[in-house]
Amino acid sequence: MTKEQVHEAKDLRHLLSAEAKSRQNSPLKDAFKYYKLPGMTFLGGGLPLSDYFPFNKVTADIPTPSFTRGIGAPLTEDNKATIEVYKKADENGENQVELARSLQYGYTEGMPEIVKFLKEHTEMIHNVPYKDWDLIVTVGNTESWDSTLRTFCSRGDTILVEEFSFSSALETANGQGINTVPVTMDEYGIIPSALENLMAHWIGNKPKLLYTISTGQNPTGSCLSAERRREIYKIACKYDFIIVEDEPYYFLQMETYTSDKSKREGKHVHGHEEFIKALVPSFISMDTEGRVIRLDSFSKVLAPGLRFGWIVGQANLLERFLRLHEVSIQCPSGFTLSLTNGLLQNWGQSGYLDWLIGLRAEYTHKRDVAIDAIAENLPKDITSYVPPVAGMFFTITLDVSKHPKFKELGLDARKIETLIYEQSIKQGTLMIPGSWFKSEGQSTPPQKNLPHNPSHDTHVFFRGTYAAVPLDQLVFGIQKFGKAVKIEFGLE
């Protein structure tokens, strides 16, 4: 605990859902505190004897810090380490999670070794400014978001979301009968004044949550500045709602784009302190009241298939998540726990930062290649874009009012969007239409006196990623999309 952490979080349990409030502690789970207590013969749980687990050892080859050859370099004897995790505790090294434990029931909150590592990491990066914060492990941010909705919302409730948001996150809310009201965005994320105006004119029961992918936003690629985050946090305190920051892309922050290739050399951050200072402050780092729920994940920095994430927030609220997880996910896969913990213990906090610094350099280069290709291949008089400073995505905005069929199709921007999408498929490249991510929710009853953004009537955007393909395919794909746009607008 740092010297700033002198107070406890504000009690926000009044924002919990009826389901969350009704959950009782599981007496069976409570009994597990006696498991492996010296002198205790534990006959109280349905735990299979670990001798019967048919896995005696798992191994994995991993790269070693400081990744000077690049994080994607082939492994050789000079840059490789091997993790070996055995079934029995006495066969393992220090701070390993043996298979007899990881493949067993228990530890819904997370194995102590990896929770300790994640807490140290959180303190280093975010320095949560109140003392009774905690974290629990999850099976990734998709599950974390589902659990967050169940913990705070009931069917018929309303939440705030970004005007364009991750379609699966919107559908998660829709499936639970939760209404999603959009907050107006621009190319830099949520507009604080629009959020304030929305809340000031709200009619009826106010929302409990604001869901935001605030860094490397999916789909727009936008990144909220520190100033905007502080303004949004003040609004959350004023109107008593919780900010859910979904942050799988947080460490995919990059150098600022420059079209001058000669100026790109030597711009990368190198030291750990420089890297941490370069990160945009998170919502949880400015959360003095304990009203931020942070969803973190290894999906975008290690591997999606690990299905391993964690939630950071005030302990009183996370206790309710824990009760839900005890009767749902229980815990991440035991193999994931043992191998991910083994990797992190091998690297240490320093080595993990080295890995993240390497990712920053890789994604900066991929972003640069994508933006260079857009500048070269898209017609400038109908195209606009903002080079992203975080995440995996770029967006290309098109002025559809200049499309030859705009008037013929009734000034309907989405019809032009569909034509462009279909033409891009014909040309052999897939870019996702922005309308697929549009939040169509509406407050009940509708709000009054809210600003209308007319640019949305004449502009559409398409989302692409520079993360999924090799660089030559990235450039080729953007070239083909550029050709599709030129064909549709009668420029080729």
List the helices and strands and how they pair.
Blueprint: H1 18-22, H2 27-31, E1 57-63, E2 80-86, H3 99-102, H4 112-125, E3 133-138, H5 141-152, E4 158-162, H6 167-175, E5 179-183, E6 185-186, E7 189-190, H7 192-200, E8 209-212, H8 226-239, E9 242-246, H9 272-278, E10 292-297, E11 309-314, H10 315-326, H11 334-377, E12 383-384, E13 393-399, H12 413-427, E14 432-433, H13 455-458, E15 459-465, H14 471-488
Parallel strand pairs: 4-5, 4-8, 8-9, 9-10
Antiparallel strand pairs: 1-2, 3-11, 6-7, 10-11, 12-13, 13-15, 14-15
Family: Belongs to the class-I pyridoxal-phosphate-dependent aminotransferase family.
Keywords: Aminotransferase, Cytoplasm, Pyridoxal phosphate, Transferase
Enzyme class: transferase
Fold and architecture overview:
This protein has 14 helices and 15 strands. With 492 residues, the chain is α/β, with parallel strands linked by helices. The chain has two domains: 108-350, Type I PLP-dependent aspartate aminotransferase-like (Major domain) (Aspartate Aminotransferase, domain 2, 3-Layer(aba) Sandwich); 359-489, Aspartate Aminotransferase, domain 1 (Alpha-Beta Complex). β12 and β13 (393-399) form a beta hairpin. α7 packs parallel to α8 (226-239). It is globular and about 80 Å long. The model is unreliable at 443-455 (pLDDT under 50).
Identify the notable features of this structure and list them briefly.
492 residues, Aspartate Aminotransferase, domain 2, Aspartate Aminotransferase, domain 1, 2 domains, 7-stranded mixed β-sheet, 35% helix, globular
